Model the fold of this input.
Amino acid sequence: MSNEFVKLGLVKAFCLLLLTYCLGALDMSPTCIRQLAVCWNDSFRKIFGFKRCESVKLLQYYCSELPLEYIYDLQKWKFLSNTSMVSDRFKPLYHLKHYVLDNLSRKYGFSSCIAGMKCAVTDYFASIVLCDK
Done:
């Protein structure tokens, strides 16, 4: 079993970084996010011997890993929270920032620091996974 966790660590160190590079700065469609999520989920399937028709959400929960949809939300929140005051020519970005941050805050019930947001997202994911059992 430890061999699988070594493989997962390597996938996180190399593949996840490539999958999520600049993710927070991009406004991606739900279809594109699902396609990236399939890649992330397939890595779990390959490492732990799951079939394509089997869900890996519970496995991700027990491995303390988030699905890519939640990683995307965290990256987006982190990127937009770290943008400083924008100049007048970037007013659309300013409005987008507040719109997206408000939506994420409502979805996860949190709007403070990134560490707290990560806990809120993880708790939200845990409640979804544990209710589906």
About this structure: The mean pLDDT is 85.
